[in-house]
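Mods, move this if it's the wrong board.
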Amino acid sequence: MSRAFRASAVLAACAVLGGPVLTAQSDEGMWLPTDPPRQQLKDKYGFDLTDAWAARAMRASVRFGGASGGFVSPDGLIVTNHHVGADSIHKLSTKDRDLLRDGFYAKTRSEELKCPDMELNVLQSIEDVTDRVNAAVKPQMTTAQAFAARRAVMAEIEKESLTATGLRSDVVTLYQGGLYHLYRSKKYTDVRLVFAPETGIAAFGGDVDNFEYPRHGLDVCFFRAYENDAPAKVADFFKWNTTGPAENDLVFVTGHPGTTNRLETLAKLKHRRDVTLPYTLYRLRTLEAALTQFSEQSPEQRRRASADLHRVANARKAFAGQIQGLLDPKILGQKRDAEAQFADTLKTQLTGSGQADERYQKSLRRIADLQAVFAGFEKNYYLIERGDAFYSELFAVARHCARMADELPRKSADRLREYRDSNLDSLKLQLYSPAPLYPDLERRKLEASLTFLAENLGGDHPLVVRVLDGKNPAARATELVADTKLFDVAERKKLVEGGKTAVDASTDPLVKLARAIDADARVVRKRYEEEVEEPERQAYAEIARLRFLALGRTVPPDATFTLRLAFGTVKGYEVDGAALPFHTTFAGAFARADALGNRDPFELPSRWRDGKAKLDLSTPFDFVSTADTIGGNSGSPVLNRAGELVGINFDRNRHGLVRNFVYTDIQARHIAVHSRAVLEALRKLYGAGELVKELTGQE
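Not the wrong board. Structure tokens:
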């Protein structure tokens, strides 16, 4: 391929991602750790990213479920965001000991608190298994047969890997079906809380400042991984940089970005805009209203609902930003132009590649047709199978118990994906969690979601009638929660170990409900997998093959909650003619609190108000950079050229919410806590000298 065509192809690729035609040297990309853009980094920044640098960053990065973190000492110490750790902090709290409100610090290892159900994963290797997965799907297969064959071979690969290595093994789909990689990860299930600041400073500004900048939040907490009841010994960790980043510094973000949609077609994005996102926002606003009302009834109810309310409110604001992006005519217009441009590229440059443009257009039409198919049953799929109608931890437990009775007797390759052998230990860790569940909160959540079910399907719908069983949503939720035994972990184990006999004989109302809707749920799931997911995957895989043929691997895959490496520069930006600095300071936090009357959510904790004179108020607090991040990057280590930790990513600004669909660095920024801010607070406000010494070697 000529150099001129390669350059134009890269520009076309950027356009196909759905955004403005950026230069080939933009900082776009959530790159695989095994395939970073080395030449781009060398050409633009003079940085040689070595294999050793990338491998160490991979093995020092930690996955927290749907978020990120990193090892910061050889003794298993891990840093992440406070809001990432909040679920575990909440579960460790009680009515008389609210660790979210008051904070926590373990001065000695013996005081570190064991989290009831936390699993951390550290990626060890990536293996390309695309050929094996694709070979299992034969051309003559129906979509149902193709889906079953693909699911079976992925489960076989995972089981073989787990047996051979003992590592968690997951086959990950990339480029919507263009590639399949086997990720092997070391798992830690003994994880203990070391330090957490008060929510008042970790989430300073609350929902008002969420996705905004300037920010003044100490959104960090520390955990420690243990093995054999002793702190884990890790060879790879990020050295804590005591200076932090300067303006225009090159920085890297290593973490687990959730879901981007940059490689989706115009038709798919329109479907998100017009169908999926409006439904999602309706649901989130319904839940947020219910949880807010519950929280206002007493301080204890506010504490109990805090984790749920934060998750729902954060999601609502993020998805609202996404729909604003898709309602911007320029974004979809760019996608429309990009698809036409890529078609022209295929026609003119790949004339000998088997009617490349015709294959491309056929795939686009196929994906467009599938959106209409999905629209016909999408609500039912979300409500019944995804569980939107049953927003309750207790119902999730009941469904797993009921489904495991049916799935576990089958071969791993024939089960629903969540019940494959390679995932069972992780599933049981959650299922048997001793973390407290609160009847009043579970009842309120169920009432809200059962009402949502009836609002969407109608009171006379057969499924609604069956679920409500002759009662209104409030009475039905009260009955389900009052009579269930699933608060008791021993009861859950009894059902799972007893298998189908125990589940069929159970009189538990939630188990009976799970069984009563399971046939309907499986029907709609099967329809989605065979009529939408599989044919859509095949169409996207064809587009990916054409992209590889024309562009090679110059375009990174969409994010998939797997480890990625992003990079950018530390710099501020302008809004409405006002220049925003690349970092804020401690002084700014006190000034903002004073300006807003020290009232919630701008009320600084008493420790900070009383300790103001101890602090160097010029200390940088939070900073921004252009690195490409998304939801899931919360807790991601921010690194300098030496691979040292200079910050902890915790948010995007509102201009960055469009990055689900397009990368831009004009105003979009990710936001991180400055490494100096953490040390200043630990030393002078929290008396955490031992923790500082572990991080830096100095008290």
